[in-house]
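Exercise: predict the structure of this protein bound to iron/sulfur cluster.
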Amino acid sequence: MALSGLQINKLLPGTNCKECGSNTCMAFAMKLASKKASLDECPYASDEAKQILGAASEPPVKGVKIGKGISLSEETVFYRHEKTFVNQTVIAININDTEMDAHETAKKIAAYKLERVGEILTLGAVAVTQKHLLGDDEYASFAKEIYDITSLPLILRGSDEAVEAAAKAVAGSASVISGVTMANADKMREIAKENGHILAVTADDVDGVRELTAKLKADGFNHLIIEFKTHSLAEAFQTNSIARKAALKNNEKALGYATLKFIDTGDDCEDMVIAVNEITKFGGIAVLPSFDRAQLFTLMTFRQNIYTDPQKPIQVEPKLYAIGEPDKNSPIFITTNFSLTYFLVSGEIENSGINAWLIIPECEGMSVLTAWAAGKFSGAKIAAFIKEIGLADIVDTREIIIPGYVAQISGELEEELPGYKVIVGPGESSDIESFVKAVLLKNA
Ligand code: SF4
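Solution:
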């Protein structure tokens, strides 16, 4: 049962020492009540307060770690604009024991890396499915081989005996045992406990899942994931939403767990739509039926956009960047420190084949026009930054190329930087290459 701010306040020390970052204990209590703070932030909380508030300050959707520390859930809001989503959906690939080139697929999964706006995006788990080509012990050896190649947590799916053997073979890997029902829950709980794994529980409907998670928790095992049985996109959307809402709004612990979804409709486009639904609608792990770079590129990019904190734009460090191997006479470009802008502009300069300098002033991670409108990318601000980094001592060039969308700051910038000429560059980064050819190389 969630406690109100007033009830929580009575349990706090009442000294208003401000060490938690709030001005008063009451203000901190209100934050705790709205799940916008954690009790750990008060160094003086008593053991009694910790005990009573422990459950109340727990994230409504329980966190769980798989593999070498990949976190799932711990979510506190229904929509990301309310605060932020905490742990992104893990994208996994399924490998069947019938797959001829399974080891090659495992190597591709292990090596998969997508770099986008300064972040490295990777796969988070591998499902190993027994299609009964292999016997139980062979399945376990197969699972171990896949684990040894990928070092990723596995999602084990097969007969009880096969999964038991595989769980022992990859003991300590914090893998997931899939498809646990009321019928095998006790046995699987012991296997998971002994070998350090997580259980993905399933039932015919939401009530059955509730019953099963409550039972396992009462039995002292709470490293759980929910695997809903859904048969259509609409049902998956609805079920995930019902569970998340029940956990967040009604504090219903029995549904407050990460989810696991195997995706395999036999139609690539439909699979993609279901995966997108999992990423947007609270999925914990989405398992794709095969390794497909085109699908992965789309899903990884989409996931990054959804799970980027909207209140904290991704930024790069404000400084002078060398693109290629510029010298004292190389051209100087300038743009903002919004990551996407930086990577687009630096990539296009690189593509144009020239060496150049790129000035990135502090703009709080805003794009060019937003930063200009907010007064963060004015002539005066840019000039101050250029002086701060000592550009005149590093480079002899006295021409600065500004983004075309802020042509209006050119006069102010020239006034603030006597001796410099400001050139208005293209508005779109995609036009940098033609700008370089038409203006810079022509005048060289
Ligand atoms: Fe109150 Fe603890 Fe915050 Fe100090 S740190 S103001 S005692 S809640």
